[in-house]
């Protein structure tokens, strides 16, 4: 899962809480960790299907808020369509 992956972040991205730091650093790589004991974590793939419904609705609201008109959405749709082939 981590072969050929390199994480480079500025020092200010690290937090005093290791759990918060790991989540913020690994989520963009579609990875997560599960705490299995004191200072022991297990790496796994990020499980989007395990989102709570409220989190999913919040993400949909965030995405929808980016487009205020049909023209804005149509422009974005034109950008995205080639990526879906």
Describe the structure.
With 85 residues, the protein is an alpha+beta fold. The protein folds into 2 domains: 1-50, no CATH class; 51-85, no CATH class. The protein contains 3 helices and 2 strands. The chain has a two-stranded antiparallel sheet. A hairpin with a 2-residue loop joins strand 1 (31-37) and strand 2. The chain is elongated, with a radius of gyration of 17 Å. The mean pLDDT is 85.
Shape: elongated
Domain tally: 2
- Hey, roughly how much beta strand do the residues contain? 15-25%
> Helical segment tally?
3
Summing up helix and strand content along with how strands pair, one would put the structural category as alpha+beta
| Average pLDDT over all residues | 85
Radius of gyration computed on alpha carbons: 17 Å
The arrangement of helices and strands along the chain is HEEHH
Report the count of strand segments. 2
Order the strands across the largest sheet as they lie in space: 1-2
Query: Helix share of residues?
Result: 25-40%
**Gap from first CA to last CA:** 26 Å
Largest pleated sheet? 2 strands, antiparallel
| Poorly predicted spans | none
